[in-house]
Amino acid sequence: MRRRMFLSAAATAPAALIARPALAATQLRVFISKQERPDVMRKAFDLYEAAHPGVKVALEAGPTTSEAQAQYLNTVLSARDSSLDFFLLDVIRPAQFAAAHWTVPLNKAVGDVPKLMGTYLPAYAAADQVGGDLVALPGFADAMFLYYRKDLLDKYGLKPPATWTELVAQAKQITAGEKTPGLQGLSFQGAPIEGAVCTFLLPYWSTGHDLITAGKPSFDVQAATAALALWRGFIDQGIAPRTIAQATTEDTRQDFQAGKVVFGVCWSYAWALFQGRNSAVVGKVGVAKLPAVPGGSSVSCIGGWQWGVSAFSRHKAEATGLVRFLSSPKIAKLLAVDASMLPVFPATYEDPAVLKADPWFAAAGPVLKTAKSRPVTPRYNAVSEIIRTDFNAVMAGTMQPAAAAKNMAVRLKRVLT
After folding, report:
1. Whole-model pTM?
2. CA 95, CA 131: separation in Å to the nearest integer?
3. What's the CATH architecture for 143-299+376-416?
4. Conformation bin of residue 203: beta by default, left when phi > 0, alpha when psi is -120 to 50
5. Of 4, 26, 63, 152, which has the fewest Cβ atoms less than 10 A away?
């Protein structure tokens, strides 16, 4: 009897094991913008899922602007909502989210942080590290570029300007020679928006100065005065229109695309639109480094998006592993080839497949290598507000450059100390 019972149990054991339900996959939920090509991002998630069958990714696509995205994430994370596991952050946000303890430090997960960050474009090493912690990993890049009418510079035998002084001379020569009504020499962002912060910083950085050095305010009033006077001078000399104080990023892009501008300072997204069906400048556009001040160096302002892991996720380890994959050369190449998103790795700009997919990466790469990060501080919103409003006042003619620079110095010291 005992033998019969033993055989019966042994015979039924495999069936019992087969009948057990399979372990459920870990479900990770990600938040990105609708403008960040959810279709291409889905390809990246699918690649990870194929290699890690125990992980599934649910994608939530939200608002298109940086401000609206930040507002949504602020609401979710301040409520300590655990349903969101990871997300994309504007490059100006990692320090703010880290200070609020909304993101997970990634130091242990990546191991040798200096070695890893040394593989990315230099500006991201600064933007994504706060107080010794690696708080985010680069997703894809962006920067300000000098767009120029290649056909017009070629016509007058000119090379892209290396300095702002050269740009003024070329703009005057071309607009005078063309005699086209309404042709502007230069367009940039003069409205009180985030783009105005970067606009101000271009010549300020070119002098070798920063707003924050070693964690302490290092604002230079003389360099700021010179930077503000430079931009105001473009208006006074007739290079930029007197309405520039109302010009947004889209105004610059649209005017250049319509053939109304010789030189335009704008972000990378404009390039594809300049080659589009409704563009008046198809095949006539060149891209170059930002001009330098005399004796200074060319500097651009970094943009782009960073992957962060929620401090309230119930699956931090799995989310961290996925974020490391998304911030890899393999995915940078995928985003570049399939969506023309700028890579965060210098080497990717030399990849033959990337250059074949979009030859403009050859011109974009050198500009990205000159880019700097805006101040890395939890008080960045206040810093931005100070710079953009005073910059706009100078462009509107309601404040002189020297007075605006002194005002910036006082206000920045207040918020940064």
Report:
1. 0.89
2. 9
3. 3-Layer(aba) Sandwich (3.40)
4. alpha
5. 4
Structure tokens at 271: 């390039």
Q: Which of 192-195's residues contact partners 24+ apart within 8 Å by CB, and which partners? A: 192/388, 192/389, 192/391, 192/392, 193/248, 193/249, 193/388, 194/66, 194/92, 194/384, 194/388, 195/248, 195/249, 195/267
Contact between 318 and 55 under an 8 Å Cβ cutoff? The reply is: yes
Question: Which of 117, 44, 65, 69 lies closest to 339, judged by CA?
Answer: 44
For 271-289, how does the pLDDT look when each residue is reduced to its tens digit (9 = 90+)? 999 999 899 999 999 999 9
Residue 23: pLDDT band (50, 70, 90) is low
Same topology, domains 26-135+303-369 and 143-299+376-416? Answer is yes
Three-class DSSP labels, the chain: CHHHHHHHHHHHHHHHHHHCCCCCCEEEEEEEECCCCHHHHHHHHHHHHHHCCCEEEEEEEECCCHHHHHHHHHHHHHCCCCCCCEEEEECCCHHHHHHCCCECCCHHHHCCHHHHHCCCCHHHHHHCEECCEECCEEEEEEEEEEEEEHHHHHHCCCCCCCEHHHHHHHHHHHHHHHCCCCCEEEECCCCCCHHHHHHHHHHHHHCCCCCEECCEECCCHHHHHHHHHHHHHHHHCCCCCHHHHHCCHHHHHHHHHCCCEEEEEEECHHHHHHCCCCCCCCCCEEEECCCECCCCCCCEEEEEEEEEEECCCCCHHHHHHHHHHHCCHHHHHHHHHHHCCECCCHHHHHCHHHHHHCCCHHHHHHHHCCEECCCCCCCHHHHHHHHHHHHHHHHHCCCCHHHHHHHHHHHHHHHHC
Q: Tell me the domain boundaries of the chain.
A: 26-135+303-369, 143-299+376-416
Phi, psi of 273 (to 5 degrees): -70, -35
Enumerate the β-bridge partners of residue 30.
59, 86
In order of 95, 103, 216, 371, 412, the CA distances from 132 in angstroms are 11, 14, 15, 22, 23
- CATH 3.40.190.10 at 26-135+303-369, yes or no: yes
